């Protein structure tokens, strides 16, 4: 058999075969737990050199040994000069490909090992892991993870890396690497140039972005990569992320010469094997194509191109590289350089003697006792009690045997390589609202899935009952409240609550309930609450309101067994939070400052319509979007009495809008209004809204005569304020605007209301009689000939938008009218309301009218004179006449487009009408007339002179 070439030695003549040479430049995966015809063809006909195995390929240690042997045998029989490189991910914790309850041990995640404070223990675990996977024939491990969590929040990497301190990540990364090498595996650092501070845009079509400059990366993120290279790292995986900073514009790092050749090869002096991210990712295949992407990856400096599973795509990549060489885009010399690196790596980790004689189960049986002991030691050393302010641990000290212990767990997917994954069906069923109750012999509901065994373990350790039920994004339900009231102590589990915000909200709600508990004697008694993060420790690391907080760093069975020992006092916690997690500044997201541009109608109209559609589709489940009947025209008033300025954050290359904000300055009242602010749901949490808001405030502050700011606009009435239809979303938005400087505690409830089935509608009993006693007469007028008297009446009202609504109505005498209430003795106007239909220009600014999905008319902007005593009666009279008129026009529904707690002028006392209509959220008077709430909001106002959050220019 031909020799394996190493650095500085010429290649064997067998490599003159171009197809054989090219095959070594690919790593591919496949679906199946046995050899498939597709992977067999790739090995035999395309001379595939490397294979990536994942959890979907591996059923057990014994089956894996057989599968790897079969793959190597096919390659040997096909005349491969060197064995296949067989790789897998075995990071431990929640990211493993190979699982076997008997022969493969569970070990803590990278961050869990960092919590032990021992690089020696990390080395031992890495060596044990490598010994196990090498026993089944694997010769290449895709690790260590060398990313630094420079932004710890909302990063999917989570506990896969050791933390946010570059030196600590370096020391543990090198320890992992040495352990892998000691057991004979080739190593592969990832994910260069760092996944530790990515901006995730949320769509498969969007590539996550590194916003740091090369200079910033050198100071932190690249430190572990540089140190691992110096320590002898065999290979490096370059990520598929984009890079966007001053002087850098990289669409995909693994396709960029600037990243692979200039940064990795030249600056960091890495001469090992460079592996690309999988080119099957949707964003890359859609934007570039796999064939072209393969050529770009090799030209950039990648030695091995990864394609995970699709046979058609894999063939496309091979054809693309061959065409690239034939066209002269890639030289044979370039191919040969990569081949030499690959062969050098293989010479260190495999040979045909090793590949065709895997140790298998016999060796794993020998390793099992010592590895079991090592696993227990590692987990027992990693569990961290961050706080136990009220000394609740061990639980036996604070809960009586006859009291119930309640376990509340989120519904999460089982780990791909775990006992739970094998035991549960692929889709975890929703839990029953009734709790599962474990006695010593009781069964457990399948809906509790992942944490079933934890409930059993908790029950086995005490004589009292353990109640277990799950929670979801539906929040705290009555069943949870009942169980909390019954229980003597509560344990709440969270799993990445920073990315699953419902878990954060649920836990805080439970904490509030526990703090409000009272004893039978009426004394306040805080109910014991223990919060356990079973993944990222960042969930409540800085939240001092959670008095007892424990971190396990993963939720493997072994981790949860160690947790039970901590909870019951059988084990003293020894773990510590890794890195600088305790420093609050590390938890603060750095703000990205986006370029905010002025809205241009001709340029941006179509893009805004597309953004509106995306925002509607991305609304939370059950959340009604106020944009549902809006278009780009709905935001443009073109009113000489209103100065409007709208802003966008846009992609200048694709013309797509990422965010939009509309502002209006009503000169008549000196009110500056943010009328809408929304961002593409896939690009939230990137500070786009922050940038738009700052630009809006700066613009409004410059308006001459500005007196107040208002969040929410009557005209146009797309957003009347902070939407309140969804409780979770309302809390999130209130907090966001509060952080931006708005005093949301002083908000005013406003809403749009609708009355349907007008054909069957009749006024409330006694209303006609009340109107007769009010001493007023009503009429309906059209056009500017009545303008002077109407405007004199309206000018007594200083609320934003009212004057402009009436001017619109006076100008549109065919589709808008005004109902007046006058004193018969002198003809003075004491009340008025605007009447309009769906054909009016005003209707374009009232999406609620279209939301009824039926023939509809509208009533807007009631103004009642402060001299009138019977506010409610007069308002009902105006609305009654409006409904009658709308019925006569053939409409089946009527919308009140703006209902607030002060429908009278600001200087008037808020007496009857304010309380009867919607003071304190009471809409009795309008409900009696058949109206129900359509959309609800919180309008927020503040004095412009006292605005404290003035953003910099």
Helix content: 25-40%
Q: Describe the biggest sheet?
A: 13 strands, mixed
* CATH architecture label of the largest domain: Alpha-Beta Barrel
- Kindly report the average pLDDT value: 85
Low-confidence regions: 1-9, 424-447, 582-590, 902-922
Count the beta strands. Answer: 34
The structure class reads alpha/beta
- By CATH, the topology of the largest domain is TIM Barrel
Strand content: 15-25%
The end-to-end span amounts to: 71 Å
CATH class of the largest domain: Alpha Beta
Number of helices: 31
CATH superfamily of the largest domain: Glycoside hydrolase, family 3, N-terminal domain
What's the gyration radius in Å?
34 Å
Overall tally of domains:
4
Query: How would you describe the shape?
Result: elongated
Write the layout of secondary structure elements.
Elements (H helix, E strand, L loop, with lengths): L17 H6 L2 E3 L8 H9 L4 E4 L7 H17 L7 E4 L1 E3 L2 E2 L13 H7 L2 H17 L4 E2 L24 H17 L5 E5 L5 E2 L9 E2 L3 H6 L3 H8 L4 E4 L3 E4 L2 E3 L6 H11 L5 E4 L5 H6 L2 H11 L4 E3 L3 H16 L5 H18 L2 H4 L4 H23 L1 E5 L16 E6 L8 H5 L12 E3 L13 H9 L5 E6 L6 H9 L2 E6 L6 H15 L13 E5 L14 E4 L5 H11 L16 H4 L9 E2 L2 H17 L24 E9 L6 E10 L4 E9 L8 H14 L6 E4 L10 E2 L3 H13 L8 E8 L11 H6 L4 E5 L5 H8 L7 H10 L4 E7 L6 E9 L9 H5 L4 E9 L6 H18 L4 E8 L11 H6 L6 H4 L4 E12 L10
Parallel strand pairs: 1-2, 1-14, 2-3, 3-6, 7-10, 9-11, 10-13, 16-18, 16-19, 19-20, 20-21, 25-26, 32-33
Antiparallel strand pairs: 4-5, 8-9, 11-12, 15-21, 17-18, 22-23, 23-24, 24-25, 26-34, 27-34, 28-33, 28-34, 29-30, 30-31, 31-32
GO molecular function, one term: acyltransferase activity, transferring groups other than amino-acyl groups
Keywords: Glycoprotein, Glycosidase, Hydrolase
Pfam families: Acetyltransf_1, Glyco_hydro_3
